[in-house]
Request: fold
Amino acid sequence: MSRISFFFKRLVRMDWKKMWATTKLLKERSGKSRLWLLADMLRCGIKYNAGYMDYKIAEMYRLNDAQRRTVITRGVSNSIVRRMNDKAYWHFFDDKTQFNTLFARWIPRKWLLITPETKPEELAAITEGRDALIGKPLEGSSGQGIQKYTKAQWAGGMEAFRSLLLKDGIGILEEIVVQHPEMARLCPTSVNTCRIATLLGDKQQGIVYAFLRIGNGKVMDNVDCGGMAARIDLASGKLLTVGADKAGNRYETHPITGTPIIGFTIPYWEEAKAMCMEAAQKVPQMRFVAWDVAITPDGPTFIEGNSFPSHAVPQFAAHYPDGIGILPEFRKFIDV
Reply:
């Protein structure tokens, strides 16, 4: 799809109300007029395949053309995914039961497929001895539809619990991952996961980027659920940057726990990298995968793999104070 056709396709689907609200926010942040911002958004949409959210998150209003060419906008990200990932194989990542089965070696937790045919005794087995479980839709992203269930919700019997799960759109029920105490020191309310992106490129294979996603008081660490992210140094496993959220807030320390973010070191980092690189070879038709990795007291484990990696976190302006974005890292692996 050409830049122009992608631009007009996005234009037709534009949420104009949200876009107008975004220009109001950016006017306050940048000191530039709405007319200037609208004209510049249009220019970035045509030239860099940037939507208004790309423009906001990457703070493109403060970047020159050379810097803008290094931002991974939605259009650029989409083109990379189309080139690198054969859609016939997305199902191994999009269906959570298929993912858990294929990558079972690295997923020791118990889980159960939820359907109208799920037997009460199967539910009884997974709930036995547990205070809580996590329910997820079979497909979906950004933490949508994920819920925590406690003893109180299955106290009325397994048939009633199954009905509740089906009513909530839950397709898989899982044992809760217990994270490493060091990871809980950042934020104990959520499992704080590493987003590690592997790329089986034409020039080389490896990890193209890694970020730690950190919760901010909710069950989920996802940035679409109010969480934040900080960039991980691939060599050391240390956090290089402040935490940043989708609203543009920056955090040097966690607002709830007070734990410093810059310099925080991920436990079992070498093991996490090795796990992702080995797993990346299992479906070689999927050359660009973003893995969500939890760090437990016993080492890393997969939460899920993303067939269509989000481009939002890798372009947060707070992670690139010099205005040079993530695309130079991709160019070490592929031509972009």
In short: Residues 50 and 255 are 31 Å apart (CA to CA).
